[in-house]
Amino acid sequence: MAVGSRNLLRTCPLCEAVCGLTLTLDADDQVVSVRGDRDDPFSRGFLCPKGASFGKLDGDPDLVRPPLVRDRATGEFSPVSWDDAFDLIAERFPAALGADGNRAAGLYLGNPNAHTVAGALYLPALIRAVGTRHIYSASTADQMPKQVAAGLMFGDPLFVPVPDLDRTDHLLILGANPLESNGSLCTAPDFPGRLKALKARGGRLVVVDPRRTRTAELADEHLFIRPGTDPALLLGIAHTLFAEDLVSVTVDVTGLEEVRAAAADFTPEVAAERTGIDADTVRRLARELAAAPTAAVYARIGTCTAEFGTLTQWLVDVLNTLTGNLDSPGGAMFAQAAAGGVARSKPFRTGRWRSRVRDLPEAMGELPVATLADEIETPGEGQIRALITVAGNPVLSAPSGDRLDTALAGLEFMVSVDRYVNETTRHADVILPPPRSVQSPHYDFALLQFAVRNYARYSPPLVPLGDRPSESAVLVRLAAAVTGQPHAGTGAQSAIAQVDEFVIATTLAKAGRAESRGELTGADSTEQRIDLMLRLGPYGEWNGGKLNLSVLLDNPHGLDLGALRPRLPDGLRTASGRVELAPPQLIADVARLRARLTEPVPAMTLIGRRQLRSNNSWMHNIAGLVGGSNRCTLHVHPDDAARLGLGEAATVRSAAGALRVPVETTAAIMPGVVSLPHGWGHGGSAQSVARANAGVNANALTDDSVIDPVSGNAVFNGVPVTVEPA
Ligand SMILES: Nc1nc2c(c(=O)[nH]1)N[C@H]1C(S)=C(S)[C@@H](COP(=O)(O)OP(=O)(O)OC[C@H]3O[C@@H](n4cnc5c(=O)[nH]c(N)nc54)[C@H](O)[C@@H]3O)O[C@H]1N2
Ligand SMILES: Nc1nc2c(c(=O)[nH]1)N[C@H]1C(S)=C(S)[C@@H](COP(=O)(O)OP(=O)(O)OC[C@H]3O[C@@H](n4cnc5c(=O)[nH]c(N)nc54)[C@H](O)[C@@H]3O)O[C@H]1N2
Ligand code: SF4
Ligand SMILES: [Mo]
Fold first, then answer.
1. 558 lines ligand 1 (CB under 6 A)
2. Strand order through the sheet with 77-79
3. I need a surface site. Which of 114, 429, 464, 708 has the fewest CB within 10 A?
4. What is the distance between the alpha carbons of residues 545 and 541, in angstroms, rounded to a whole number?
5. Beta partners for residue 627, in sequence order
6. Which SUPFAM superfamilies match (predicted)?
7. 227 φ, ψ to 5°?
8. 70 to each of 42, 75, 242, 384, 604, how far by Cα in Å?
């Protein structure tokens, strides 16, 4: 090793797999090599191409370094000091709200907030300070249906079962491609290796997807399904389980008869007609699930971002329950994370308030991102005039992205906390950059709630901040600035300490441990909060266990806390104290599906796809990641291409817009379906590599007027389109 260089450990923050990394930093603190941490008990050395590019991302010359302020006349950004940036926000943000005050403020929170300590611990302070019901996030373009379904069935939207990957005998996957995505709402480093191990121990893997993906290639069986029709398949399976007396519920439930009645007219023949999967196969899928010693059904983004997203997610756990696999080893189980669980007192419900323009229900304190453009564009009391985005790019990630692009340009004031000038943040008046990942602490409060093994790992900051504020400090100072408090006098770290002291004091008081403040350890108040959460958590020193922050610091490769264990009924927060198998909203939604069955199937529909060397919209500026298979092309079945006379490029049209895209024919896609990846469309980007590999914005075709009404989730799959030669 070169003089001054050293190896350091940390968790990869780039996807949900939480792999351990071994980084080599040189004497100038630059990341010169990245390896998988072989001593991490969970990831055991696994590393994917994105993780391997961690150093390139960290050193990208296009990253925003000092804060930037945009001149509204020229559109040009120029660097400013942190103090000037916050002064400007304190002056302009409250002024932009006008007489409506906080009701005219909006907040959009993007995906990486699920991966940062700042997002987990300090966004609540910002949300409180902004004081608005205009809270939007990537969740309603992603997993909200699963959370609403879990909330309705189990009483807690964070109590989401995951397939017990390492022990199951039979796994049915719908609408997920973990060989490329590395898994989602199922935290499993080396997901591909875990699936191979399932097969090696004689287990069976079945994949239902309109594309023959790499995961489908690995499977024992792959079935094409017509996009958006998964709930008909799952109801057909449920119908068969009842009809053939294969139901064996092993947990305490309510609503079994209502489920039987809801599935009564969804015969395998009805399911076949809609899905394109023949009736005998539907019956066989049911029998296989019932017969396997242990089995789990797992469905992800392909089935969430669909018109019946919540219905589908509910049916997944209905099947897990009907087959006796809920909360049972090898089935669908609940993780028990060491920290970050939220103690709910009341059962979950949605619609505690509704959106102004379209009257859509709130879910988990958020309104659907599919109505963000409406709320910015529609005049009236409570119209959004000032917006904050943190770690997001909704112009490329939200439906009707082009419309949102125009809407953002009409805001009075906008602030973005982001690493890059991207398609969204280019509209910001001020961009506040987070420091490098290696300068931030890391603990996966969110993702470890969904892990396939109980595990905890803490990575302290590896490189000092120097003159940069931590992302946590940025959020806390922003919280002060939006309420018009000038930054002066509130030193960033002391502002954080104030927030932390308040949280620590109230938490200790609630736990009846007010006298224990002095026992908390950690280099700063953030670490002391983490220590507090670990001590009070299910493995914690103050809860009959041993865990605290110093235990994690002594185990820098991470700590294995064992295989998943049954958690029912204690984890339930339903009014009945049982698993509520037939929530009225979902039974009612079966009727909506039934009505849909009488409507014709669109001749051609659009779906998305993820790419191994991509991550939504923000890894296209790394030369080693773009190009080759990672290009923005339209996948079309050769028969469709021939029938439509497609050449090198096609024009795809939907109700929302039209795009010209390069065509790639492949028999891996179902006839009648085309696929376009999202996150592209960097034509005007300030990022040089991304601009040279621009692609088009798939969300110019998706339609923000179409949502899953139960959760408010956006619809990206099964979008009706026409395709013609360009
Ligand atoms: N058509 C279609 N659209 C989709 C999807 C789809 O499958 N099809 N998928 C949806 C899904 S699942 C998701 S999660 C959303 C994602 O939607 P978004 O979260 O809105 O988009 P990302 O592209 O993930 O943008 C993340 C931003 O965070 C910044 N960033 C990265 N790390 C940090 C950090 O540490 N701090 C801060 N402050 N910023 C950081 C990046 O520079 C980037 O600008 O897209 C959704 N959109
Ligand atoms: N490499 C890489 N990894 C990522 C990301 C990335 O962009 N790139 N993004 C991260 C994020 S934010 C998330 S949320 C996760 C998502 O993780 P996954 O859910 O595994 O996401 P995808 O790989 O998009 O797989 C979704 C699959 O659904 C299929 N599909 C589309 N429509 C339908 C349908 O109607 N029915 C069925 N049954 N299938 C359908 C698609 O063909 C696709 O293969 O991945 C994360 N990991
Ligand atoms: S799979 Fe995810 S967590 Fe693991 S190295 Fe790749 S990006 Fe990082
Ligand atoms: Mo996501």
1. no
2. 77-79, 68-70, 430-432, 413-417, 386-390, 105-109, 135-137
3. 464
4. 5
5. 630
6. ADC-like, Formate dehydrogenase/DMSO reductase, domains 1-3
7. -50, 140
8. 44, 6, 62, 20, 43
**Which residue's CA is minimally distant from atom 6 of ligand 2?**
615
> Is the shortest distance between the CB of 630 and ligand 1 below 6 Å?
no
CA distance 269 to 283: 10
Assessment of whether the complete model's pTM goes beyond 0.85: yes
pLDDT at 341: 80
| pLDDT, position 340 | 86
Question: Rounded to 5 degrees, what angle do the CA atoms 616, 620, 626 make?
Answer: 115
Please provide the DSSP assignment of 5-35 as one string. -EEEEEE--SSTT--EEEEEE-TTS-EEEEE
Q: What's the gap in Å between 615 CA and the centre of ligand 1?
A: 8
The answer to whether the beta carbons of residues 409 and 72 sit under 8 Å apart is no
Q: Are strands 713-714 and 707-708 parallel, antiparallel or unpaired?
A: antiparallel
Looking at residue 488, what is its pLDDT? 52
CA Rg value for the chain = 25
Q: Is 313 in the pocket of ligand 2 (CB under 6 A)?
A: no
Cα–Cα separations (whole angstroms), residue 436 to 30, 163, 496, 603, 617 = 10, 34, 19, 47, 19
Count how many Cα atoms sit within 13 Å of the Cα of residue 230 in the half-sphere of its side chain.
Answer: 34
Q: Using a 6 Å cutoff on CB, does residue 617 contact ligand 1?
A: yes
User: Strand 386-390 vs strand 673-675: parallel, antiparallel, or unpaired?
Assistant: unpaired
Do residues 215 and 186 touch, judged by C-beta distance below 8 A? Answer: no
- Cα–chain-centroid distance for residue 545? 31
Nearest to 349 by CA among 581, 156, 586, 569: 156
Omega before residue 399 within 30° of 0, cis: no
How many angstroms is it from 400 CA to the middle of ligand 4? 17
SS (H, E, C) 263-277: HCCCCHHHHHHHHCC
**The pair of three-digit structure tokens given for residue 696, joined into one six-digit string:** 């088009």
Q: Which helix (H) or strand (E) holds 639?
A: helix 638-644
User: Which pLDDT tens digit goes with each residue over 422-433?
Assistant: 999 999 999 999
CA distance 72 to 661: 33
Q: Count of CB atoms within 10 A of residue 124's CB?
A: 14
SS3 letters across 481-517:
HHCCCCCCCCCHHHHHHHHHHHHHHHHHHHCCCHHHH
In the predicted model, residues of the chain with pLDDT beneath 70 are: 1, 486-493
Residue 390's nearest CA partner among 617, 126, 614 is: 126
- Owner of token pair 């400090």: 473
Ligand 2 center to 375 CA (angstroms): 28
C-alpha–C-alpha distance, residues 593 and 229, integer Å: 9
DSSP strand E in 507-657: where? 559-563, 579-580, 605-607, 634-636, 649-653
* Residue with CA at minimum distance from ligand 3 atom 2: 15
**Rounded Cα–Cα distance for residues 125 and 624 (Å):** 38
Cβ–Cβ under 8 Å, residues 314 and 189? no
Atom of ligand 2 nearest to the CA of 718: 35
- The pLDDT, as a whole number, for residue 681 is 97
CA 299 to centroid of ligand 2, rounded, Å: 10
Give pLDDT, residue 494. 79
Cα–Cα distance, 624 to 306 (Å, whole number): 32
Q: Whose CA is nearest to atom 46 of ligand 1?
A: 397
Sequence-distant (≥ 6) Cβ neighbours of residue 10 within 8 angstroms: 20, 21, 23, 437, 438, 442, 459, 462
- Identify the DSSP state of 698: G
Q: Which atom of ligand 2 is nearest to the CA of 227?
A: 35
